[in-house]
Amino acid sequence: MSASDTGDQRILLIDGHAMAFRAFFALPADGFSDGRGQATNAVYGFTRMIINVVASEKPTHVAVAFDLPGGTFRDRIYDQYKGGRDETPPEFVGQIDLIMQVLDALGVRWLTVEDYEADDIIASLAHRTATEGGEALIVTSDRDAIQLVGESVTLLQPVKGVTEMRRMNPAAIEEKYGIPPERYSDLAALVGESADNLPGVPGVGPKTAAKWIVQYGDLPGIIAHAGEIKGKAGQSLRDHIADVERNRLMNAAVLDLELPADPEHYTLGRGDGTVLNALFDELAFGPTIRKDVPADFLAGGADVPQAPARELPPVQRPASAELPELLTSAFGEGAALASDGSWVLGQGDLRRLALATDDALAVLTLADLDDAAERALAAWLEDPEIPKSAHDTKNLAHQARGRGLRIAGWRTDLAIAEFLCRPDQRPTDLAGLTLRHLQEDLQVEAAAAQQELDLGADDGSDAEAEQLGRAADAVLRLERLLRSELEEHAALSLHDDLELPLSAVIGELEATGIAVSDDVLAGLDQEHATKQTEVAESAFSHLDGDRINLGSPKQLQEVLYERLGLPKGRRTKTGYSTNAETLVDLFEKTQHPFLADLLAHRDVTKMRQIIDTLRRFISPEGRIHTTFHQNIAATGRLSSNNPNLQNIPTRTEEGRRIRSAFGNSAGYHALLTADYSQIEMRIMAHLSEDAGLIEAFRSGEDLHRFVASRVFDVEPEEVDGAMRSKTKAISYGLAYGLSAFGLARQLHISQGEATALRDGYFERFGGVRDFLRESVEKARATGYTETILGRRRYLPDLTSDNRQRRENAERVALNSPIQGSAADIIKLAMLRVDELLREKELTSRVLLQVHDELVMDVAEGEEAQVREVVTEGMGSAFELSVPLEVGIGVGPNWLEAAH
DNA sequence: CATATAACGTA
DNA sequence: CGTACGTTATATGC
């Protein structure tokens, strides 16, 4: 049967741009990406829409019309046409082209006509179809199409998003607007269309316009009788007749465009399933949308070939006796690993391990292995020539460590690889990664597979093994995908040569942990507890003994600003701030004794809190094993948690005392701290190549004194404390994208003074100013910032129309190369220090990293050598144009190891 | 019971 | 209205 008999024609006409744009805003741009940074949300939404409409409306023919860039004849009539529109969002760019590719694969004709809009194409085709006795369905959110609706032309208006449509036939139009569709252009001319920048008659909305149309027949009738219309609206109409006539001219659809006339041209059913599938692969579209593509699109009504679900090799559960042979035969070339185990308080436990290759899948239950089998497994795991990958290699190694197994030959850490490609994304577990990149739900897949197994013969398999096997198989496929992505992001070397080897080093130091004295902490806690009661009682005494909750900002607001009537200061989202800065200001103003007690209470409470947290994490062996994460901080720094050992107090005397609890490992002689002196400013000097700053570091003079002497134009020895601290604040502030406002607030000086200070700084250190400006410009052009090792951070917001977002991204762009390069350097240093310790066969070991500092256990008699190791390892980690200086301190504990 | 907010510790 | 984090207690919403 051919649909070329026009009487049977049922043509679907879609406004490509209007619907793509709608899809773009209906779906999150950051939730749909092809994995290469191209957003695909509009493509996905549009595809979804056309699939749904074809499935439900069953058209015989389809055409999609697009606007062309550049003007149309309407712009020549009215130069403000469609003026005042926002710029195209950057994520939308490129999606129209992709939609056209999808349409080609679906075998759907798409059309453009120079000098005309998509509307005109649709109008012409609809008109012709109707004339020839066929039927047309128009899909667009553009209201100009309402005028086209007729007996055989129906409009489908998107209601919500792009998949829900409202059918508009003449009756529906009449009901909604009170006029028939052919009069809608008259109504629109009177009311105006803000989207097209066509102002109508002020004070006249659809109701008034419809009333006039009913009364006078049509627009010419209204204009002819304009003089009779009473009231404000009538006057307004008379004052804007010219606008109305222009609008009517502009909104009239063109019905006679020359377009391919043969209905055959638009016939549905010329799509190519293979091409479509390949394109969906490229777009990273999942299996769901493929399944929903109606066969009507494809030549011969074929089904869309489904991306074949991966046929998993059978899950083997080898007996001990079979394992050695299996490891060499099936997994001799390496495997993807997934495990079921734990690592808590330095205690690891690996229960099950799944191994996957393309052809084999095995799940081992460690407790079931006999000695020979376990030895074979140990040898396989330890073999550095057998490549292995896992979602979180360090964690798997920790679990294995609990069984006395160590793993060598790591090839890819999926979590790290994912992070290097998308540093600003929140980390996700393996199931999340699988969903994101393979569009498969591990849990669902495993459950479905298990059901099939259950129906078949019982082969001793179980649901958990099935799930673990699926996980290992996912690791296998993700590994390939992510390695190619690493290449695309120029991050393969960062993964292979920096982060992955580093994860092994970090694993060692996490497993080692740091000795912490519970007794010392208990003593401190006791002191603070006494003090806490004291200041709390004193605080309550100033409130007529009212025992409010001093830890509740809400209650404090009530007390401070209502009851005591103190002057309100800074605002928070929900009320007035009660933070320390505000309280100190308030105390200086009012000298109210409650404030002093409250501040003291805050301090002492915070201390107790920190102490309490630390104590909860002390293992039975008296050590704290923090976890360092390599995939959290977008700049490339490590982060530490459970507990965080990178924020142990150091600024106040009281706080520092906590550090005295850290140290004295049995068998070790002392603690050593080694830190980089002003590493971020050195990186600034290196990157900016500012002659003055480089000289500052080469002169050996105190940095801030040197810089201050230049800024204030005095001899270095004349620099006083105020000058030095102001200069220091600017130096560091610059690397954070500090504003004059922020600087003024921090230094308690006027904004004018702050501006002058900054200008003076930039005048003497012009290279810094140029560097900062250029690095933002470069990031805007490339879309990302880069560290000295090429670690990228993508900042799409640099081109945002939203000022707040854009300026925030600019500050991030200033800071990331600096903070990130410092992170790169200390990571290199950790690798180097680890290597040197091995070379020299020292027992001393690294315990902690605190961004620019390493904390080490020094073994008896090794202090001199360890000093050499850190001086060399940290000092020569990376060659900058200024020296890297390392400060070293040694003492019985972390407090006394300061320098 | 889970999430949000304000606060505050570090580099 | 400077960057990067983690933890906590309180308050709020389900």
Automatic annotation (TrEMBL):
<dbReference type="Pfam" id="PF22619">
    <property type="entry name" value="DNA_polI_exo1"/>
</dbReference>
<dbReference type="InterPro" id="IPR012337">
    <property type="entry name" value="RNaseH-like_sf"/>
</dbReference>
<keyword id="KW-0548">Nucleotidyltransferase</keyword>
<dbReference type="Pfam" id="PF00476">
    <property type="entry name" value="DNA_pol_A"/>
</dbReference>
<keyword id="KW-0269">Exonuclease</keyword>
<dbReference type="InterPro" id="IPR008918">
    <property type="entry name" value="HhH2"/>
</dbReference>
<dbReference type="InterPro" id="IPR036279">
    <property type="entry name" value="5-3_exonuclease_C_sf"/>
</dbReference>
<dbReference type="InterPro" id="IPR002298">
    <property type="entry name" value="DNA_polymerase_A"/>
</dbReference>
<dbReference type="InterPro" id="IPR020045">
    <property type="entry name" value="DNA_polI_H3TH"/>
</dbReference>
<keyword id="KW-0235">DNA replication</keyword>
<keyword id="KW-0808">Transferase</keyword>
<dbReference type="InterPro" id="IPR020046">
    <property type="entry name" value="5-3_exonucl_a-hlix_arch_N"/>
</dbReference>
<comment type="function">
    <text>In addition to polymerase activity, this DNA polymerase exhibits 5'-3' exonuclease activity.</text>
</comment>
<protein>
    <recommendedName>
        <fullName>DNA polymerase I</fullName>
        <ecNumber>2.7.7.7</ecNumber>
    </recommendedName>
</protein>
<dbReference type="InterPro" id="IPR054690">
    <property type="entry name" value="DNA_polI_exonuclease"/>
</dbReference>
<dbReference type="InterPro" id="IPR036397">
    <property type="entry name" value="RNaseH_sf"/>
</dbReference>
<dbReference type="Pfam" id="PF01367">
    <property type="entry name" value="5_3_exonuc"/>
</dbReference>
<dbReference type="GO" id="GO:0003887">
    <property type="term" value="F:DNA-directed DNA polymerase activity"/>
</dbReference>
<dbReference type="InterPro" id="IPR018320">
    <property type="entry name" value="DNA_polymerase_1"/>
</dbReference>
<dbReference type="InterPro" id="IPR002421">
    <property type="entry name" value="5-3_exonuclease"/>
</dbReference>
<dbReference type="InterPro" id="IPR029060">
    <property type="entry name" value="PIN-like_dom_sf"/>
</dbReference>
<keyword id="KW-0234">DNA repair</keyword>
<feature type="domain" description="5'-3' exonuclease">
    <location>
        <begin position="9"/>
        <end position="269"/>
    </location>
</feature>
<keyword id="KW-0540">Nuclease</keyword>
<dbReference type="InterPro" id="IPR043502">
    <property type="entry name" value="DNA/RNA_pol_sf"/>
</dbReference>
<keyword id="KW-0227">DNA damage</keyword>
<dbReference type="InterPro" id="IPR001098">
    <property type="entry name" value="DNA-dir_DNA_pol_A_palm_dom"/>
</dbReference>
<comment type="similarity">
    <text>Belongs to the DNA polymerase type-A family.</text>
</comment>
<keyword id="KW-0239">DNA-directed DNA polymerase</keyword>
<feature type="domain" description="DNA-directed DNA polymerase family A palm">
    <location>
        <begin position="655"/>
        <end position="862"/>
    </location>
</feature>
<keyword id="KW-0378">Hydrolase</keyword>
<dbReference type="Pfam" id="PF02739">
    <property type="entry name" value="5_3_exonuc_N"/>
</dbReference>
<keyword id="KW-0238">DNA-binding</keyword>
